[in-house]
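User: Before I run my own analysis I want an independent prediction to cross-check against. Here's the chain; please return only the structure tokens and, at the end, one sentence I can use as a sanity check.
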Amino acid sequence: MFSLEKCLNVLWSSRDLTLYGKINIVKSLALSLKLIFVAAVLPIPDNFINNVNKQIVEFLWSHKNPKIKTTTMIGEKKEGGLGMPDFDLINKSLKAAWVKRLSVPERPT
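Assistant: Structure tokens:
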């Protein structure tokens, strides 16, 4: 079973990674297809979303106080952000994609 806490804190927190390296781990492993797929097809409670975001921030800052605001970190790199994913925004975009799919009439095959 996929465990975000195990993936981040047990496997990767002991390594000496830069902030960019940790963000890359979050993008590629923590928010893997398992979590994204579940979020795409099922309703996700707010407390779960907050828990995921909290675990990501704790991993990035090694369970210490953050030195950069989260809103800055999730910003695009060209605008001075770090490109960190925000699970709440990912979840909302996945739900919005369903609106487009459901509003287009089916084409006969």
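Sanity check: Residues 4-97 form one domain.
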